[in-house]
Amino acid sequence: MTGQTVRDAMVPEPTMLVETASAQEAGLAFAESEEVRALFVVDDAGRFVGVVTRKTLVREVVAAGRDPREVTLREIAEPPHFTLDASLPLDDAYHTLEERDLERVPVVEDVRLVGVLSRAVVRRRLAEDEPPAADPDPGAVVL
């Protein structure tokens, strides 16, 4: 794993919307793909503003009785609690994800959102890089 950085394992270009987009646009983005779990909200310069999830839309717009055409993502995006720098060594990033019990973390470079790092992906990469277990008795036959 040595030498690899967050950039090597991140998912580049996550689903992003600008902060001036409406909650209705966010709903449409979720409706287009069941795989999209979160929308990353950025400003016009690509700086990471926050995250909107389906739960956010329900709580902040639907349950609150607000018009989704009038609510901007800037108003409802949950600010980032944690981000990782794209140049961080992957080993360090994995330990941070484990310590903080984080599943997915936005990846930034100079405050611009450039990707998302998933703990599951890093775990798979770590497993692929591990050498096979030594055979305690190389002469034995296993049937």
Q: Describe it for me?
A:
34% of the residues lie in helices and 22% in strands. Residues 134-143 have low confidence and may be disordered. The chain is elongated, with a radius of gyration of 20 Å. It is an alpha/beta fold and 143 residues long. The relative contact order is 0.21.
The helix content, as a percent range, equals 25-40%
Rg of Cα set:
20 Å
What is the global morphology?
Answer: elongated
- Spans of 5+ residues with little confidence (pLDDT < 50)? 134-143
- Tell me how many strands there are: 7
Distance between the termini: 34 Å
Return the structural class: alpha/beta
Order of helices and strands: HEEHEEHHEHEEH
Approximately how much beta-strand content do the residues carry? 15-25%
- Specify the number of helices: 6
Largest sheet: 4 strands, mixed
Mean pLDDT: 87
Strand order of the largest sheet: 1-7-6-5
